[in-house]
């Protein structure tokens, strides 16, 4: 019996226009009536996720910032912070890569230095609260992760520059143009394990939907792992099931079918 349903956001629950399916709110409440918990797991900022689930924001769990921040509604359950000396080193590397813009993702807001319209256009869908500042090296707040915006190709352009840090850090390519850098062991999969422990739910009782490489670890923490039709081939390889694409309402339709709703 499935007791926990988790979905990624971009490329999974949301269509390519970044729209939330209208049916999802009622569906989540129906699941709750059956004793099934719903969680959103995303690289997005917590405040952004709150907006996405505004009608039912206190009825679900949140795995934000790719697993660095876990909450039950507004109640903090887990916080993972990047050490500032390491942030300094990472920024120095990122600032030397062509077409790459680092963003510090903090507990209260995100920080970015570029005012270029193309950068802000990429930042705003994922970070509801952000501040444009002159120098990221001066930030002295709790930082969950560094999001690396790469206008060439995150997996091919930015990622190779950070491979030497993989013994110290968790590096996740979350989209064609995005890569996230976090404390070692922080990822959606570890966050799912923490949530399962809190809820007393097993892998066999968990259903998860995803589409990209930052979902890779969490898809292995459940029996009902669904890769979207539009998912990265490497993700499909570790999933037990495939469902229709994000543009074909795959998450909602699959939940309705499995739960007979």
Structure notes:
By secondary structure, the protein is α/β, with parallel strands linked by helices. It folds into 2 domains: 4-79 and 186-259, HAD superfamily/HAD-like (Rossmann fold), CATH 3.40.50; 84-183, Hypothetical Protein, Haloacid Dehalogenase-like Hydrolase, Chain: A, domain 2, CATH 3.30.1240. The protein contains 9 helices and 14 strands. It has helices at 9-13, 24-33, 46-52, 84-94, 117-123, 154-162, 188-199, 233-236, 250-259; strands spanning 4-7, 37-41, 61-64, 69-72, 75-79, 100-106, 110-112, 130-132, 143-150, 169-175, 178-183, 206-210, 224-228, 241-243. The strands form 2 sheets. Strands 5-4-3-2-1-12-13-14 form an 8-stranded mixed sheet, with helices on both faces. α5 links the parallel β7 and β8 (130-132). The chain is globular, with a radius of gyration of 18 Å. The model has no long low-confidence stretch (mean pLDDT 96). One of its GO terms (cellular component) is cytosol. This is Cof-type HAD-IIB family hydrolase. It comes from Dielma fastidiosa. Pfam families: Hydrolase_3 (PF08282). GO terms for molecular function: magnesium ion binding; phosphatase activity.
């Amino acid at each position: 019996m499935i007791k926990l349903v988790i979905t990624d956001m971009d490329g999974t629950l949301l269509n390519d226009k970044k729209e939330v399916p209208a049916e999802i709110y009622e569906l989540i409440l129906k699941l709750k009536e059956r004793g099934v918990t719903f969680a959103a797991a995303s690289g997005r900022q917590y405040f952004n996720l709150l907006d996405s689930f505004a009608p039912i924001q206190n009825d679900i769990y949140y795995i934000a910032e790719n697993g660095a921040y876990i909450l039950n509604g507004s109640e903090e359950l887990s916080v993972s912070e990047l050490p500032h000396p390491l942030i300094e080193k990472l920024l120095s590397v990122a600032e030397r890569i062509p077409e790459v813009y680092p963003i510090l993702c903090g507990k209260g807001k995100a920080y970015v230095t570029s005012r270029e319209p193309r950068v802000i256009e990429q930042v705003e869908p994922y970070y509801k609260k952000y501040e444009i500042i002159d120098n990221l090296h001066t930030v002295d707040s709790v930082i969950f992760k560094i999001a690396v915006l790469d206008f060439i190709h995150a997996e091919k352009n930015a990622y190779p520059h950070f491979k030497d840090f993989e013994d110290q850090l968790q590096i996740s390519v979350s989209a064609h143009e995005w890569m996230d850098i976090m404390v070692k062991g922080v990822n959606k999969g570890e966050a799912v394990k923490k949530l399962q422990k809190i809820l007393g739910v097993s892998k066999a009782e968990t259903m998860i939907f995803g589409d990209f490489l930052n979902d890779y670890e969490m898809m292995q923490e459940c029996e009902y792992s669904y890769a979207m039709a539009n998912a990265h081939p490497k993700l499909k390889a570790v999933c037990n099931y495939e469902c229709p694409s994000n543009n074909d309402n795959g998450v909602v339709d699959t939940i309705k079918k499995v739960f007979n709703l």
